[in-house]
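FAQ

Q: What does a record look like?
A: Structure on top, sequence underneath. For example:
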């Protein structure tokens, strides 16, 4: 049975808080999609506005430092407040941002159980391996590291990283950062290829997961199903989650 993880694409802090409240006590973990409006077109909490790459060419400041950020986010970083309902539910961060590696230390201050980097944004695979190996042991023991791969990328690009990360997130859609996109069946090929080569590798699937595709994904040996609109756009969220769990 695959683990069901609701995915939240938060428009703002209130949207984040309200959606977590809907699944608090129902699931142990949610995924929070963070989009900077640069790596993907979407822009989510904590970004009120996004910095631009052109603004940063001659600057040592990162996109995160240049952007207009939500005050709650700043308060969390300064330990004035915590993430919504942090005592009742865990969360992982799907960083669909242009400088996730550079700002890793900042995102860890949110207290996630896992952080997901996108292969397209990583760039140099060898440099990323060095980065992961250089993470402080205490942080590495408390935060799992995942790497996401999109349907149109060659799955072999993930092979050099498998022994350095905790899981792979296979994207089921071509355009990250948008919920409700049509499922891309190349995702199934990615899952099967990875499982054949690395049987013990944990594989999550994010994007395009619904009642029409979940069965195929489970048959392909997906371990975790990341589900957004198919959960939150229903009238009975708790019942919907239970139905997914029972597939």
């Amino acid at each position: 049975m695959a683990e069901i993880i609701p995915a939240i694409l938060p428009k703002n802090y209130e949207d984040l808080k309200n959606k977590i409240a809907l699944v608090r006590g129902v699931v142990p973990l949610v995924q929070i999609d963070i989009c900077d409006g640069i790596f993907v077109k979407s822009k989510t909490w904590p970004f009120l506005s996004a910095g631009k790459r052109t603004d940063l060419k001659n600057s040592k400041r990162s996109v995160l430092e240049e952007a207009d950020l939500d005050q709650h986010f700043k308060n969390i970083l300064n330990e004035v407040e915590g993430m919504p309902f942090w005592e009742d539910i865990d969360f992982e961060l799907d960083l669909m941002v242009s400088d996730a590696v550079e700002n890793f230390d900042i995102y860890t201050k949110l207290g996630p159980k896992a952080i997901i980097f996108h292969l397209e944004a990583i760039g140099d695979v060898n440099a990323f391996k060095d980065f992961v190996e250089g993470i402080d042991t205490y942080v590495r023991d408390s935060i799992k590291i995942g790497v996401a791969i999109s349907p149109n990328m060659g799955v072999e690009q993930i092979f050099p990283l498998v022994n350095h990360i905790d899981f792979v997130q296979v994207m089921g859609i071509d355009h990250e950062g948008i919920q409700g996109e049509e499922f891309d069946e190349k995702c199934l090929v990615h899952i099967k290829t990875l499982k054949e080569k690395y049987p013990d590798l944990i594989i999550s699937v994010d994007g395009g997961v619904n009642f029409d595709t979940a069965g195929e994904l489970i048959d392909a040996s997906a371990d975790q199903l990341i589900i957004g609109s198919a959960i939150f756009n229903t009238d009975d969220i708790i019942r919907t989650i239970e139905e997914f769990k029972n597939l």
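Q: Is there anything notable about this one?
A: The first helix runs from residue 13 to 23.
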